[in-house]
Write a structure and sequence with these properties.
Layout (H helix, E strand, L loop, with lengths): L10 H9 L8 E5 L12 E2 L9 E2 L3 E4 L13 E8 L15 E5 L11 E4 L3 E4 L2 E4 L9 E2 L10 E3 L7 H9 L4 E5 L3 E6 L4 E2 L10 E2 L2 H10 L4 E4 L7 H14 L2 E5 L10 H8 L1 E5 L3 E2 L5 E4 L4 E5 L3 H19 L11 E5 L3 E2 L5 E11 L2 E6 L8 H5 L2 E5 L5 E2 L4 E6 L1
Parallel strand pairs: 5-6, 13-16, 13-17, 14-15, 17-21, 19-24, 22-25
Antiparallel strand pairs: 1-12, 2-11, 3-10, 4-6, 4-7, 5-9, 8-9, 18-20, 20-21, 22-28, 23-27, 24-25, 24-26, 26-28
Helix pairs in contact: 1-6, 4-5
The structure holds ligand LQZAQKY5 and molybdate ion.
Length: 409
């Protein structure tokens, strides 16, 4: 990562040469499993036992030998002898069942020895100590095998996997109540611009209120990340430096909002160079061209464009993957959520991969994406959108009804 690039590069280059190679991760902490949703696990976890651990009935009825029911029907029922009953949470205390015998069993009960299937109570009729079976069952039918949910010694969580509710359920069922995870990163946001004012303040005609930092804070918090916001920074190098210094002391990832372009008062580049190394300065993406990628020994500093649409798209494409990487996730790059059809022709951006905000409509033919076009200086396109579709680099555009990748925001 020594070489510094000043040219605009494709998004994939940032992924391969900046994000994939980032060797910064947050510290490892122990969490109660019930508090671990969304964290990346910091160790491989193997199952110490089978789940459920016993062959289990999935219906209320009778535990049988399947072969005894073969050919059974309403007109020709199988007749079995009831030799006992299984109670919930208890092992069957009778003898293994023999051909011609069956045992009453509740949903969730442990299958008695000798039985290999269960028959639903609705398909039977009890006559004293016998039962008529009107429907045959195959071996294994209406049963969960003892290792069917989780097999002893199998891997339940791979280091770097994001913990989901299924993992939490499995871990708790296995009696594993604590888990080592990577701490969620802290992101420090520094909103900049002489023209930018606090939202609760009155503004002059030429001023704008800070939407960027508050929108990003809310978005990051929705994923449980820690966020800190610096007060507004004016367009001067000292204020930029103070802001970034604060960010480096207080967070893992520092974001400068605005001032990343080429204007005389755009100080993001020189400030990042002051504190660390700038690896890339500009990407072939629209919106979101002037993104600056920098790092110090153990922190990331990003300069994001001030234009609202560019700010949001570059956050989605670059900031979020960086956060996921730093948070220990093995799966950190964005992936399309689905393939949709575009409702109208949309031109590409010359020499840039283009992302277009769309609203999705569900029709009989599947999802149709309606573009919400507008300049990168607007915020309403993403207010009205479900996400973006992608026009790959080098493609001249999307034609009406053409399939394209959709990314949900
Ligand atoms: N000569 C060139 N000019 C520009 C180029 C270029 O290549 N050559 N690139 C354009 C592109 S593309 C973008 S994107 C913008 C990015 O500019 P900056 O990152 O330097 O951002 P600012 O100039 O600070 O602001 C742009 C725009 O966004 C508004 N803004 C800033 N902060 C906020 C905030 N917190 N909340 C809401 N809106 C904000 C700001 O008022 C400006 O209107 O550069 C083009 N120029
Ligand atoms: O690339 Mo700028 O990010 O178009 O607005």
């Amino acid at each position: 990562m020594k070489k510094r690039f000043q040219k605009f590069v494709p998004r994939t280059e940032i992924y391969e040469n900046f994000i994939d190679k980032l060797n910064i991760t947050t510290s490892v902490i122990e969490k109660h499993v019930s508090e671990s949703f969304g964290f990346a696990v910091a160790e491989d976890i193997y199952a110490p036992e089978n789940i459920p651990g016993f062959d289990k009935a999935t219906i209320d009825g009778y535990a049988v030998k399947a072969a005894d029911t073969f050919g059974a029907s309403d007109g020709n029922p199988a007749l079995l002898k009831i030799v006992g009953e299984v109670f919930m949470g208890k092992e069957y205390d009778g003898k293994p069942i023999n051909p011609g015998e069956c045992v009453k069993i509740p949903t969730g009960g442990m299958l008695p020895e000798g039985a290999d299937a269960c028959v639903m109570i609705e398909n039977t009729s009890q006559i004293g100590k016998r039962v008529e079976i009107y429907k045959s069952v195959a071996p294994g039918e209406n049963i969960i095998k003892k290792d069917e949910d989780v097999k002893k010694d199998s891997i339940v969580l791979k280091k770097g996997e994001r913990i989901n509710i299924g993992h939490i359920h499995n871990l708790m069922s296995l009696g594993i109540t604590k888990v080592k995870v990577y701490q969620k990163p802290t992101i420090c946001i520094i909103p900049t611009g002489d023209e930018v004012v606090e939202p609760e303040k009155d503004r002059k005609l030429t001023q704008i209120r800070d939407g960027n930092s508050y929108a990003l804070m809310a978005w990051l918090k929705s994923y449980g990340y820690n966020v800190k916001r610096h007060p507004l920074v004016k367009d001067n190098p000292d204020e930029f430096k103070k802001g970034v210094e604060w960010g480096l002391e207080n967070g893992d990832i520092v974001i400068i909002s605005g001032g990343s372009s080429l204007g005389a008062r755009d100080y993001a580049l020189s400030t990042i160079e002051h504190f660390g190394e700038v690896l890339y300065n500009g990407v072939q993406v629209k919106p979101g061209k002037p993104v600056i990628f920098g790092k110090t020994e153990n922190k990331v500093i990003l300069g994001l464009p001030g234009n609202p649409t560019s700010f949001v798209v570059s956050s989605y494409l670059f900031l979020f993957p960086i956060i996921r990487k730093v948070a220990g996730n093995i799966d950190y790059l964005p992936k399309p959520d689905s393939i949709v059809r575009i409702s109208t022709n949309v031109p590409a951006a010359q020499g840039r991969e283009r992302f277009v905000f769309v609203r999705l409509e569900y029709t009989e033919k599947g999802f149709i994406a309606h573009p919400i076009l507008g300049e990168s200086g607007l915020a309403s396109p993403f207010r009205m959108a479900d996400g973006v579709v992608r026009i790959p680099l080098g493609k001249e555009g999307l034609y009406k009804d053409e399939e394209c990748e959709f990314y949900r925001f």
